[in-house]
Design goal:
The protein is mainly β and about 350 residues long. The protein has four domains: about 1-35, no CATH class; about 35-65; about 70-140, no CATH class; about 165-290, no CATH class. Helices cover about 5% and strands about 30% of the residues. The chain contains two helices and 25 strands. It has helices at about 80-85, 220-230, and strands at about 5, 10, 45, 50-55, 60, 65, 75-80, 90-95, 100-105, 120-125, 130, 135, 140, 165-170, 175-180, 190-195, 240-245, 255-260, 275-280, 285-290, 300, 305-310, 315, 320, 325-330. Strands 17-18-14-20 form a four-stranded antiparallel beta sheet, with helices on one face. Strands 16-15-19 form a three-stranded antiparallel beta sheet, with helices on one face. A two-stranded antiparallel sheet has the order 1-2. The N and C termini lie far apart (about 70 Å).
């Protein structure tokens, strides 16, 4: 039997000792696993080149990692379990009801460091794509047209409401602000608005008219609303922006104005926007924060159609139409704008 040699208290061995101490050699003993092995045991060595030729499903210089199915179909990126957990990269909101979002994937970031953290990988799909290999497309979502009335039964027992967020801006000259909004399908929408909180009218609507009136186009609120409604993608084309009266307690408050964005047309709970000053002397005093949680239903194809995952199209049931089957046809068997099939998403 070969014996381990002691060198200054450290273990040294002749090649392949027959019975080395536990954890000190190459031979397996009970309760041990994941030993170093040529090409990680998932490939063969090309001794002419000194390179591993990995078996199907494995990659890396030593074949030490799993591959992602179909290379994520060119619609996503391959990430290790450690990376996915650290950034909650797989988090996807797939629906909402009563203000509660239905989430799949990693809900919140955490540190994952078990043995397979850097060995196993998975696809993190681009916005609008889904499936283990990102080959499936997602479909538009909306509020079920049969439960659309403001009935608390369909809104978590509370008054049905669109999401509303407030923020404060400050500037003593024209400043361009960048508004970034990530929708629940993970599409990013960016809008730029140039406002002057010290000179332009804020855009406050009197309490008596707040439900039916919007601020003028020359006000700061009107300029912000126009920018958001014109953002690429069109999902913000119905949002409403109004200035909120705030008490003035010192001179610095004169240049600070509060605004509220109501996400009309976007069902369910929404992510908070982010704002930054893109150019000019002004700044963001408070980032957007939720003041009203959106609690209207948010279902794929509004629950009134079937998603064609190859084309990202909702195939609406008879009597419903719209990109997300969000409208009910008043005429039986009619096709006003859609009938039995809806439109495309983006």
């Amino acid at each position: 039997m070969e014996k381990p040699l002691s060198t200054s208290g450290a273990w040294a061995y002749e090649l392949f000792p027959l019975n080395p101490p536990a954890g000190k050699g190459f031979a397996a003993v009970p309760d041990e696993a994941h030993f170093y092995k040529e090409c990680s045991g998932t490939g063969t060595c090309d001794r002419a080149l000194g390179q591993c030729k990995c078996f199907a499903g494995y990659t890396g210089a030593a074949c030490q990692r799993s591959t992602c199915p179909n290379d994520c179909s060119g619609k996503g990126v391959c990430r290790t379990l450690r990376e996915v957990a650290a950034g909650a990269l797989s988090r996807r909101v797939v629906g909402s009801a009563g203000g509660n979002s239905v989430v799949k994937g990693v809900r919140a970031p955490f540190d994952y460091s078990l043995w397979d953290a850097d060995k196993h990988q998975m696809c993190v799909c681009d916005a609008g794509f889904d499936g283990v290999d990102c080959s499936e497309r997602t479909c538009p979502r909306g509020d079920d047209p049969l439960t659309k009335e403001d009935d608390p039964r369909w809104c978590g027992g509370k008054a049905c409401a669109w999401e509303a967020q407030q923020f404060e801006l400050k500037s003593d000259a024209a400043t361009t602000f960048a508004f970034k909004f990530v929708d629940t399908r993970n599409f990013t929408h960016v809008a730029y608005a140039t406002v002057d909180t010290g000179t332009n009218p804020a855009g406050i609507v009197s309490p008596a008219n707040v439900a039916t009136h919007l601020p003028g186009t020359a006000t700061n609120a009107g300029l912000i609303m126009a920018a958001l409604r014109g953002a690429p993608g069109g999902v913000l084309q119905q949002v409403e922006v109004r200035a909120i009266p705030t008490p003035i307690t010192n001179m610095a408050d004169l240049l600070t104005k509060k605004y509220q964005v109501t996400f009309v047309g976007l069902s369910g709970d929404q992510y908070d926007m982010t704002i930054e000053a893109a150019s000019g002397p002004g700044g963001v005093k408070t980032q957007p924060f939720e003041v009203v949680k959106g609690n209207k239903e948010d279902f794929e194809c509004s629950g009134r159609g079937i998603c064609d995952k190859a084309q990202s199209l909702c195939k609406c049931f008879s009597g419903y139409f719209g990109a997300a089957c969000e409208y009910q046809n008043a005429l039986a068997g009619g096709s006003s704008g859609g009938g039995s099939s809806g439109g495309s998403s983006k």
